[in-house]
Amino acid sequence: MKCEARNATTRRRFLALAGGAMGAFGAASLLTVRPAVATPASMAAAIREVVGEAPVRPGKIKLDLPPLVENGNTVPLTVTVDSPMTAASYVKRLHIFNEKNPEPNIVTFHLGPRAGRANISTRIRLADTQSVIAIAELSDGSFWSESVDVIVTIAACTEESK
Fold this sequence. Notes:
Elements: H1 2-29, H2 40-51, E1 56-58, E2 61-64, E3 68-71, E4 75-81, E5 91-98, E6 105-110, E7 119-124, E8 130-138, E9 143-154
Parallel strand pairs: 1-9, 3-9
Antiparallel strand pairs: 2-4, 4-7, 5-6, 5-8, 8-9
């Protein structure tokens, strides 16, 4: 009999703990979760984190994005930098930033003189109508940029829990 009484207590304790855990889970699911959104200020901070105090000059880089995008889930992007890509002068990194996605730094590409050309193509997601900035870091330590404004009619990155 003692063994059965001990098992009953264990079952009761288990059921009480399980009920408490389920109640906590249920309360947690009522919380509204909103995605993080980058702002122009957070984009500027992310750019400063990459370039430090170095000046970022316009030119030497071409950012090709469509000006009007129907669906922000898959936006084609091409970046080309005017560089000879030799051991003496080459593109070290290409950085892509945006102002309204959950993270301001979309991607960083690492290149070198053996890349042959400073040209990348990819697809990105855009949360809303915004500016996209490409910054090229050259081997001499200089930074060059171009910005493109993109109008997005159906936004991506906006999955919200209700």
